[in-house]
Design a protein that fits this description.
Distance between the termini: 39 Å
Mean pLDDT: 82
Number of strands: 4
Radius of gyration: 20 Å
Largest sheet: 4 strands, antiparallel
Low-confidence stretches: none
């Protein structure tokens, strides 16, 4: 994994590996661009039940709102899903902003509609690589035999 890829969230890596899926989601919801109430209603209907069920965890930083380059940024968020082993895995970190409202909506709908594929993707990333040998170094040259 190169340095650029390690800085991307798991969701961003999933989207880059499944760009056609992401573009299809954007095309399907394109009519909702700029319609905050409609986006919010759909998120409450699809995304919120998974949050309530404990499948997805959505945490919000308690930081105040601020402006960046004249754009109003509301709050930073962290989205985690429960992996197959029952542990929480953070999959996305971002900021809620007016310009990114539609993009954030599509990303959350992608999580909802493809949760199992995303969970499998997380499991594959977390699985130990079988081809890499793990060995304990022989320290007898440093410490002497015991």
């Amino acid at each position: 994994m190169d340095n650029e890829e390690s800085r991307q969230s798991i969701l961003e890596r999933f989207i880059s590996d499944h760009s056609a899926l992401y573009e299809a989601m954007k095309a399907r919801h394109r009519s909702k661009i700029g319609k905050s109430a409609l986006l919010h209603k759909d998120l409450l209907a699809s995304y919120q039940p998974l949050v309530d069920a404990g499948t997805i965890r959505h945490r919000v930083n308690k930081s105040n709102s601020f402006r960046v380059n004249g754009e109003y940024i509301q709050i930073a968020y962290r989205i985690s899903i429960r992996a197959s082993d029952g542990k929480w895995q953070r999959i996305d970190v971002g900021k809620e902003s007016i310009k990114r409202e539609f993009e954030n909506f599509v990303r959350r709908m992608l999580i909802v509609e493809h949760l199992e594929e995303l969970r499998a993707y997380v499991d594959a990333l977390r699985a130990p690589h079988e081809d890499s040998e793990y060995s304990v170094p022989d320290l007898t040259s440093i410490w002497g035999p015991r």
